[in-house]
Design goal:
131 residues, mainly beta, Ubiquitin-like (UB roll), five-stranded mixed β-sheet, 3 helices, 7 strands, globular
């Protein structure tokens, strides 16, 4: 299993790192809202919160969806911008969107993580080591 991690820090910057095998397996079957130890991902001293992600086709993960992929009627929320091509933004606009579930499985390609607790090493150096 191979995943791309997007690590968001408290100062608004984000860093990317690709993980394989053991580190990726540590995230397998976790859901949005779970906390993950940085030790498992190669970031000693860090703690992360899973905030979302996307699957191999680019569909966003959405909390509350149990199926691997599902078509939902979405209002203003995750996976829906309210703007479709040449249409103007309308209040109360609903649209059918495809989203994937909240559980990290083999079809998930990217996982978004938020830093809850920082380690001794800066995240810039730690992310660069993995590249």
């Amino acid at each position: 299993m191979e995943l791309k991690l997007v690590l968001g820090t408290k100062d608004g910057k984000s860093y990317q790192k690709e993980v394989k095998d053991a580190a990726a397996e540590a995230l397998h079957n976790k859901v949005i809202g779970d906390t993950v130890s940085g030790e498992e991902l190669g970031f000693p001293g860090y703690e992360f919160l899973i905030t979302g992600g996307s699957d191999k086709c680019g569909f966003p993960m959405r909390k509350g969806i149990q199926a691997a992929r599902k078509r939902i009627i979405a209002g203003k929320s995750v996976g829906f911008s309210g703007l479709d091509r040449n249409k103007k933004k309308q209040p109360g606009l609903l649209n059918k969107k495809t989203v994937c579930g909240e559980r990290i499985s083999k079809i998930i390609h990217q996982v978004n993580l938020k830093v809850l607790k920082e380690g001794s090493q800066p995240l810039v150096e730690e992310a660069a080591k993995g590249q």
